[in-house]
């Protein structure tokens, strides 16, 4: 019995491919290169076969050792002590420039703090100029409030009158108050409790009389009034202005001289000045306006001819 031994050609069998290693363990240079990795980051199992050929980076268990997070934004910079965030303009699909600004919550939270820091820096670099600017703004707003209380429309006020008041506040009140508060501290260098009422009394007699007179006289010259009329109006309003201040300033100055530091006093005083400048501007301008209104009928009567039948000769 003959045995059958069938012959099987090697071409008839399917070739078995060599099993590949996991993709996570083999990365080509086209997908991950060392130039794109952060500095100082080393991977185990990295080999270079040929410098001229494309290098192959083999990362052992990359998914287990490193979490790669793609970052599309460039407005965050890593710092040693935290993260610095800057505002980067971007273009929207419509071509308009879009920026990511502060939210309302951030403005309410951080804007007062930043403004206060800027104000303190201005006091350190140029204290006189900073106080001049604040006083100029306060005296302008105070005169505008006074005009509104007098019955003028909200946006139809006398702009030249407001400018004159702001000019006096900017050029004189800020600078003079800066040196006055320093002089007052040198005049009364004591730290006892009785120093506060003494400073308040000195402020509301000597300094109040001087400053009210300066404000009234300078405004008169800015209105191009004659020295005689300025003196007569000042004499009529000096005592009422001084006593009107006694109803407000003694209570405010208990805080000024009792709790506020010297460099910050003018800011507190200017907050109260919004009320006082309204009173001061009203006193200063009502006399001038009354004098002008009384002079107008007198001039008109002198120009107009007498009314009545002609006299017979």
From TrEMBL:
<dbReference type="GO" id="GO:0016020">
    <property type="term" value="C:membrane"/>
</dbReference>
<dbReference type="InterPro" id="IPR007248">
    <property type="entry name" value="Mpv17_PMP22"/>
</dbReference>
<keyword id="KW-0812">Transmembrane</keyword>
<feature type="region of interest" description="Disordered">
    <location>
        <begin position="294"/>
        <end position="313"/>
    </location>
</feature>
<feature type="region of interest" description="Disordered">
    <location>
        <begin position="1"/>
        <end position="31"/>
    </location>
</feature>
<comment type="similarity">
    <text>Belongs to the peroxisomal membrane protein PXMP2/4 family.</text>
</comment>
<protein>
    <recommendedName>
        <fullName>Peroxisomal membrane protein</fullName>
    </recommendedName>
</protein>
<keyword id="KW-0472">Membrane</keyword>
<dbReference type="Pfam" id="PF04117">
    <property type="entry name" value="Mpv17_PMP22"/>
</dbReference>
<feature type="compositionally biased region" description="Polar residues">
    <location>
        <begin position="1"/>
        <end position="15"/>
    </location>
</feature>
<keyword id="KW-1133">Transmembrane helix</keyword>
<dbReference type="GO" id="GO:0005737">
    <property type="term" value="C:cytoplasm"/>
</dbReference>
